Give the backbone structure.
Amino acid sequence: MAEELKLTGKNDIKIFILFLLDGIGYPLSRDDLEEICVTDNFVSSFDFADCFAELVERDHLIQSVEGETEVFSVSPVGREVAASLQDMLVAPIRERAFRSALRILSFKKREAEMSCTVTEQDGRYLVECYVKEKKVTLMSASILVDSKERADRMKENFYERPEVIFKGLSALLACEVNYLF
């Protein structure tokens, strides 16, 4: 079994945050940056919060406002740190995290709306998931399962990572199984 990739050292996590934000190339809200950093389980939410605060405190991240949203970008000092130390991050972490970041941000920029419902039908549970963009249905999927717990877990997973469900279902239907493996 392959070893799980995880960042636990504070310096590695800070470099990771700076690397991602600098690579993305435009300011992000704290919530969006956290979602990107924790999505592949390389960093825990607690560790992200701690390291993010230190990066802001040390002026490695610059805070600004776009519209009504508080956003952060990498300062020149932070950019220098990211460039000089990014090789300390193992390549699989850098590559997978950056791919996930682009996928998540693409889905958010499209302003896709997601919904998922669970309804009981004769002792079983129908899970119905939808992704819509500008009132056009991009994805509609339904599955009947035997337990409420399984249905609720599916609903929760859909809301946590709708872009993964969307891309995964598209890949399965197109027989592009390499996407999943």
